[in-house]
Specification:
The complex is a heterodimer of chains A (356) and B (261).
Chain A: H1 22-45, H2 63-88, H3 96-109, E1 115-116, E2 119-120, H4 135-158, H5 163-181, E3 187-188, H6 192-196, H7 202-220, H8 222-232, H9 234-239, H10 244-270, E4 272-273, H11 281-291, H12 303-322, H13 327-354
Antiparallel strand pairs in A: 1-2, 3-4
Chain B: E1 9-20, E2 23-34, E3 38-43, H1 49-56, E4 64-69, E5 72-73, H2 79-84, E6 87-90, H3 102-106, E7 113-115, E8 122-123, H4 125-139, H5 155-167, E9 173-177, H6 185-200, E10 205-208, H7 212-218, E11 221-226, E12 229-235, H8 241-249
Parallel strand pairs in B: 3-10, 3-11, 6-9, 9-10
Antiparallel strand pairs in B: 1-2, 1-4, 4-5, 7-8, 11-12
Helix pairs in contact in B: 5-6
The chains are: A mainly alpha (356), B alpha/beta (261).
The structure holds adenosine-5'-triphosphate and magnesium ion (MG).
Chain lengths: 356, 261
């Protein structure tokens, strides 16, 4: 930016020695974890995790496994994009898993086909509502997510309930609504158009597009700047004239909308919606965010970090399956990772504070 | 010394009052500042000085009373409304966002944009960076790299950023709440230079300070607060530090402020 090697006021400043972006640390962690699993794979199974050792297809990577890794984090990754923004804002959102449940139910009931194998669909949720264009169930789903997010935001911004409590309430309520919607019955048989949204690698494509979109928004718009500012110092933001309440509403609403998109993709991929869909997704999403270097105290982190965090998460889960370890271990290790990431963040904060 | 006549009153408060529940933090403050005038507000800790500033700048909504800017009653709904009307403030508890860099802090809440689209307006980072450089060069503040986040800077540098923020924007009235309380000798001198610059430009300023030397060096008039009330209004040229201390401690009270005793 400046031509000389000096900062403002003549203090020396070597622009070549700029601090490394924190995302690099997450990236190196990802590499390290891959290396560990490669090592364990070679030692325990005599196989490689990511590389194509069999040389069956003449490729370098084991494409099938890579695809599985990315695919299994894509849908929760979409939720994590919203959680990233909420956590940078200094909040927390425990509701997206349940919002996924209720949104999937509602959206799917507007996405059903009229006929199955030439017979009228006997499982229609609503008489006469079938074969709608795909945009309608998507919009209806978005509305449900936006409504849930806006209620979260309004509770947090205007009644000053702690985000933890407000979104915990939404978590329970939305799950209840998901069960109530069809009296606990699953809703199935979507139109081809709806089913296409989650087919094959579509979840990954949607995840990546949304990640790019929100990366740009957080980095280059006033919305992004204010999200970081409020997370960093809410009082200062208010004194500087940022409309803090309105902004919080907006961030939680966007998080709700992203949970709704995740629900659409998930129900499309599974070709069915069930009231129990998305249970505990919020915790996996928070784990991805925290692993990705977003500070739980707000003001710090990025979408890029979260995407890398999601990949780490995926590699660990796949790695465990690959090593044929029990699912119980997976759960336990997930917990350890979340706490470990938060502890790391605490260390970082203390180091920053001790420099002041 | 310039004579400040009623013709060019910049800001006036009438019966300005703020109660926090039972705490009468500010009670019936009548205050005037004229074009080009630099007024000090002094008083003990908890005397109501910051509270007074918070009512003028609409950080809080007043319990009672009027604030007139250029003779017109104002009802700012938020600090940004006050700022848009031309009142720039350095708050006592630095209103800075630690994780953001210098330009982001300077332009917090009034970012320059390239493309307007509601909350999703695109930031003009280059313009903000350049304006920041220019503003800081003008004030002589030393900062190694403006693109570092504020949390890595010394207390003095952070304070200077907060002050540069007010100096960088043209304003009708500048308010500084204890701007040099945490600063070293050099930084204090810098801030005092900024204040002299504003004086030279004929910009009015309200300075809250506990530093007697500073007030007598830089200001035209001293208003003393005691227990939420104004208890003295003194021209610097007609008073001395002992006198001011007497008012601050309550040993003396101005004849026109009997209720403050
Ligand atoms: N939000 C609040 N709620 C209740 N009481 C408050 C609040 N803000 C300030 N007060 C009280 O109002 C009184 C005036 O406080 P204020 O901050 O205006 O003092 P000050 O003159 O700026 O003091 P200092 O020199 O220490 O900055 C104090 O007794 C304080 O405790
Ligand atoms: Mg004060």
């Amino acid at each position: 930016m400046s031509k000389n090697q000096h900062g403002i006021g003549g203090l020396t400043f070597d622009s070549k020695k700029k601090a490394r972006a924190p995302e690099w640390n997450v990236f190196f962690a990802l590499l390290l974890i891959v290396v560990i699993f490669e090592g364990l794979g070679q030692a325990l199974m005599g196989q490689s995790l990511l590389f194509d050792t069999g040389d069956r297809f003449g490729t370098i990577f084991n494409e099938a496994r890579l695809k599985i890794i990315i695919l299994q984090v894509a849908i929760i990754g979409i939720i994590a994009l919203g959680s990233t923004q909420v956590i940078i804002l200094g909040g927390i959102d425990l509701s997206p898993g349940s919002v996924v449940g209720v949104t999937a139910m509602v959206a799917m009931s507007f996405a059903q086909v009229g006929e199955i194998n030439g017979m009228a669909n006997p499982k229609l949720m609503f008489e006469g509502i079938y074969n709608l264009p795909v945009i309608l169930p998507v919009l209806v789903g978005l509305c449900v997510g936006i409504l849930a997010g806006a209620v979260n935001g309004a509770l947090i911004a205007y009644t000053k309930i702690p985000p933890f409590i407000a979104t915990l309430g939404m978590m329970v309520t939305a799950r209840g609504a998901a069960k109530w919607w069809s009296k606990g019955q699953p809703i199935s048989f979507p139109t081809d158009g709806y089913a296409a949204l989650g087919k094959g690698m579509m979840p990954v494509v949607i995840f990546i597009l949304l990640a790019i979109l929100f990366h740009l928004i957080l980095k280059y718009t006033v919305y992004g700047k204010h999200t970081y500012a409020i997370g960093s110092n809410e009082q200062a933001s208010r004194m500087s004239g940022i409309k803090v309440e309105r902004h919080k509403m907006l961030v939680y609403t966007i998080a709700g909308a992203l949970a709704a998109l995740a629900a659409v993709v998930l129900s499309s991929k599974n070709l069915t919606a069930q009231a129990g869909m998305g249970v505990m997704y919020e915790l996996d999403a928070i784990a991805m965010v925290v692993i990705g270097g977003v500070s739980l105290t707000g003001g710090r982190g990025s979408i890029l970090g979260t995407v890398l965090g999601a990949l780490i998460f995926g590699v660990i889960i796949s790695g465990f399956t690959f090593l044929k370890l029990d699912a119980y271990y997976q759960e336990m290790v997930k917990g350890v990772i979340i706490v470990g990431a938060v502890v790391l963040d605490q260390f970082r904060q203390q180091r920053a504070a001790s420099r002041m | 010394m310039t004579d400040f006549t009623n013709a060019n009153v910049v800001l006036e408060t009438r019966d300005l009052t703020k109660h926090y529940g039972g705490v009468h933090a500010l009670e019936g403050a009548n205050f005037v500042i004229h074009q080009g005038e630099h007024v000090a507000i002094m008083g003990d800790n908890g005397a109501g000085k910051s509270t007074f500033v918070r009512q003028i700048t609409a950080v809080e909504q007043r319990t009672r009373g009027d604030v007139l800017l250029h003779g017109k009653p104002t009802h700012f709904s938020s600090p940004i409304a006050a700022r848009e009307a031309g009142i720039e403030t350095v708050f006592q508890n630095l209103a800075l966002a630690d994780h953001l860099d210098v330009p982001s802090n300077l332009f917090l809440g009034r970012e320059k944009v390239k493309f307007k689209f509601g909350p999703f307006s695109i930031l003009d980072n280059k313009a903000m960076r350049e304006a920041t450089m220019a503003g800081l060069e003008k004030t002589g503040v030393k900062i190694p790299n403006i693109l570092n986040s504020i949390e890595n800077m010394s207390g003095g540098q952070r304070q200077c950023v907060a002050i540069a923020r007010t100096a960088a924007f043209a304003s009708k009235l500048t308010i500084m709440d204890e701007p040099t309380a945490a600063l070293g000798v050099q930084e204090t001198a810098q801030v005092e230079n900024i204040i002299r610059t504003l004086k030279g430009q004929g910009e009015p300023l309200i300075l809250i300070s506990h530093n007697m030397r500073q007030v007598f060096d830089l200001m035209d008039r001293i208003v003393v607060f005691r227990r939420g009330r104004i208890c003295a209004n003194l021209k610097v040229s007609e008073t001395d530090p002992q006198d001011v201390v007497a008012y601050i401690t309550g040993a003396k009270t101005g004849a026109e402020f009997p209720e403050a005793a």
